[in-house]
Specification:
By secondary structure, this protein is of the alpha/beta class. Helices cover 36% and strands 11% of the residues. A 4-stranded parallel sheet has the order 2-1-3-4, with helices on both faces. The longest helix has 15 residues. This is DGC domain protein.
Length: 149
């Protein structure tokens, strides 16, 4: 039996990066907590959105070479997605907390269940859905807004 060696340097790991908006509202804080949890779970590595905003060339190159770039935005403003786009980084997933049912508010409080909901959505690839799928538009083109299905 031949023993297979595994590399411990990380070169063979899937290159997946998570960019949370980390905004001041509760929904932004959830993105940061979820990114940390996802990193701890081995989903990917958290990237600092502020560093990305500076245009750090090494970071931009790393993100553009990645297999997956997951953006976690707190609200419809999609600040993290806009920062990524300004640097030429195209995400493979973009999850918006308000699209997941969270209500944006001035409180920075959230629960462990809130964070778990976001982490689970990332693992399931929910951020890969098109905008039409997220908004419930129908696929038959009848104009009902998704109520006929």
């Amino acid at each position: 039996m031949t023993e297979q060696t595994t590399c411990s340097c990380g070169q063979n790991e899937k290159k997946r990066f998570i960019i949370p908006c980390a905004g001041q509202a509760n929904t932004g804080q959830i993105t940061n907590a979820a990114a940390i949890q996802l990193t701890d779970e081995g989903f990917g590595k958290t990237i600092c959105v502020a560093l990305l905003a500076t245009g750090n060339e090494g970071l931009v190159e790393k993100l553009n070479a990645a297999e997956d770039v997951v953006i976690l935005d707190g609200c419809k403003m999609k600040c993290a997605a806009k920062i990524a786009a300004a640097q030429g980084v195209v995400p493979t997933q973009n999850l918006v907390m308000t699209d997941l049912g969270f209500v944006k508010g001035p409180s920075r409080s959230y629960t462990d269940d809130d964070v778990e909901k976001v982490a689970a959505a990332c693992w399931m690839g929910r951020g890969r859905e098109s905008e039409e799928e997220k908004e419930g538009h129908c696929t038959c083109s009848c104009g009902c807004g998704g109520s006929c299905e």
